Amino acid sequence: MSYVRCSQENIGNTKLHNGNLAMSAGILFSGSSPSQALRFFQHMGLQSVAYRTYTEHQSSYLLPAVENLYNVKQNELLESIKSDEGVVLGGDGHAVSPLSPDYY
What we know:
This protein is an all-alpha fold. The chain contains three helices and no strands. About 55% of the residues lie in helices and about 0% in strands.
């Protein structure tokens, strides 16, 4: 029997490591290019997730979490609008371009 030491804790009872998911989240939420960020880590000699692992984290965990939070915040906003007197939208229907003399 052999024992493999891992310096990262797992998330729950899964084999998903905290640091790996945090690295994928950092790349995604910073707006960085994943291939450039992972290549940078490689050139620096840093251990990092593979591109395939990043895409799995993105599709399985990160984007669903973003979508869930978006839906929660959108519902909160819609509920707050419903509880108010309503929303008044107005305008003259005239779209003014920055190049138009009416803009200035």
